[in-house]
C-alpha cells in the first residue's frame, strides 16, 4: 500500500502541473535576468499638493518590458517575484533607478519628491536602510527627495520592526508613508503610533459611487483627523473625478493622486506634463 501510495504521490506530478510550475520558475528566471539587463522600467505618477494643486512629486511604479509579452504590470509579475525571493533585488533596482532619475530631473531644474514602494520582506531583511542610503549616495540625491512607501498590511505584520526602521529612515531624512491605508483590517491604534509622515488613503475609501458621498466624506475626514492628531499628513489615492479631488481638498488632505490628475507615465513624458499643467493660481493671502 505504501508503495502504491508512493507511486501515486509521484504521479501527482502530471505533465500539466509540471508545466505550470516550470512556467513560474521560467518567469522567475527571466525576471532575475530582466533585473540584471535593465528590462524593467519605472513609470511615474504625479502627486498633487493640496490646496496648491501643484505637482509636488511622483510615485515610481515598476513595469517590465518583456521581450515577447510586451509591457507587464506589477500584478503580472510581483506574485512570482514574491514566491521566488526576488522582491529585494527588484527593490534595489527600483531604488537605484528612481534616485538616478530624480537626480537627473533635479539637475534639469525639476525638483520632485519620489515615492518608492517597498515590500515587507525587505523590511524584515534588515538591509533596507543600507540599500536606501546606498542608492541616494550613488545618485547624489538628497534624502528629502525620497519617500519610502510601505503598505498598511506589511506594517501590521511586524509593527515594532516597522516602527524602528521608519524612525531610522526619518532620522536620515527619508520620509515614510503608509500605503493603502484603510484597505486592510489592521489595528488603527498600532498604525497611528508609527513614525510615518504620510497616510496614503486607499482608493477603495476615496472612490465613491452615486449616493455614497456622505459616507465617503466621513471616512476620509476620519483618517485626516486621525493623521492630524498624530502629526501625519494624508494623501487621497485613486482620485478619478473632479468631485473626488474637490472633496479630498475640502476635507484637508495634503495630497492627491489618481487618474483624474494623471496616469503613471514614462519618465520622458513627465517634464512636458508638468509644463502643460501649471498649478492653480495660489490665493494672494497665501503667498
Ligand atoms: P500602489 O503603491 O498603491 O500604487 C497605486 C496603483 O494604483 C498603481 O497601480 C497605479 O497605476 C494605480 N492607480 C493610480 N491612480 C489610480 C486611479 O485613479 N484609479 C485606479 N483604478 N488605479 C489607480 P500599478 O502600477 O499597477 O501598481 C499596483 C501595485 O503594485 C502598487 O500599488 C504597489 O503596491 C505595487 N508596486 C508597483 N511598483 C512597485 C515596486 O516598484 N515595488 C513594489 N514592491 N511594489 C510595487
Ligand atoms: Mg504605493
Ligand atoms: Mg497605494
Ligand atoms: Mg493601492
TrEMBL record:
Organism: Blastococcus haudaquaticus
All residue ranges annotated as the EAL domain in the record: 24-278
Name of the protein: Diguanylate cyclase (GGDEF) domain-containing protein
Amino acid at each position: 500500500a505504501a508503495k502504491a501510495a508512493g507511486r501515486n504521490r509521484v504521479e501527482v506530478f502530471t505533465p500539466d502541473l509540471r508545466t505550470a510550475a516550470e512556467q513560474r520558475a521560467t518567469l522567475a528566471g527571466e525576471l532575475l535576468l530582466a533585473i540584471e539587463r535593465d528590462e524593467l522600467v519605472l513609470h511615474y505618477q504625479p502627486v498633487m499638493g493640496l490646496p496648491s494643486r501643484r505637482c509636488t512629486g511622483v510615485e515610481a511604479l515598476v513595469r517590465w518590458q518583456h521581450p515577447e509579452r510586451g509591457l507587464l504590470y506589477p500584478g503580472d509579475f510581483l506574485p512570482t517575484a514574491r514566491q521566488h525571493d526576488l522582491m529585494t533585488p527588484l527593490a534595489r533596482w527600483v531604488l537605484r533607478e528612481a534616485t538616478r532619475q530624480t537626480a537627473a530631473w533635479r539637475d534639469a531644474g525639476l525638483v520632485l519628491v519620489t515615492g518608492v514602494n517597498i515590500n515587507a520582506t525587505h523590511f524584515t531583511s534588515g538591509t533596507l536602510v543600507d540599500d536606501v542610503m546606498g542608492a541616494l549616495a550613488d545618485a547624489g540625491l538628497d534624502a528629502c527627495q525620497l519617500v519610502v512607501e510601505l503598505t498598511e498590511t506589511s506594517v501590521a505584520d511586524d509593527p515594532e520592526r516597522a516602527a524602528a526602521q521608519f524612525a531610522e529612515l526619518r532620522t536620515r531624512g527619508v520620509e515614510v508613508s503608509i500605503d493603502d491605508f484603510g484597505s486592510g483590517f489592521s489595528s488603527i491604534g498600532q498604525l497611528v503610533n508609527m513614525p510615518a509622515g504620510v497616510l496614503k488613503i486607499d482608493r477603495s475609501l476615496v472612490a465613491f459611487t452615486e449616493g455614497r458621498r456622505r459616507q465617503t466624506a466621513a471616512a476620509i475626514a476620519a483618517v485626516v483627523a486621525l493623521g492630524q492628531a498624530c502629526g501625519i499628513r494624508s494623501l487621497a489615492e485613486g482620485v478619478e473625478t473632479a468631485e473626488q479631488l474637490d472633496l479630498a481638498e475640502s476635507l484637508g488632505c495634503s495630497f492627491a493622486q489618481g487618474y483624474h490628475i494623471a496616469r503613471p507615465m514614462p519618465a520622458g513624458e513627465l517634464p512636458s506634463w508638468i509644463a502643460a499643467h501649471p498649478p492653480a493660481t495660489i490665493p494672494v493671502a497665501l503667498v
